[in-house]
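User: Run a structure prediction on this.
Assistant: Running it now.
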Amino acid sequence: MVCSNCGKEIPILRRVCPHCHADKQAGEGDWDNLALSVILLTFVGLLIGGGIGYYADGPFLAVVYGVVGAILLGIVAITISAVLKE
């Protein structure tokens, strides 16, 4: 693993960089929040699409619309997160 502060190698089991003493856990929370947001938006897309499909034409379209909704909101979440990371 490479230190995000000084760029030197950090042993995997160390929490603090032995060279610059930066906490390697400090920047990792952003990715955890990002992953959680993508998962939640994908799940919301599944629920919304499933609800629309179920009321449109029953259980088969609930699955189809649910998958489509999950894919679309997942793509939106990933795109937004990529834009925010830049």
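The first helix runs from residue 29 to 57.
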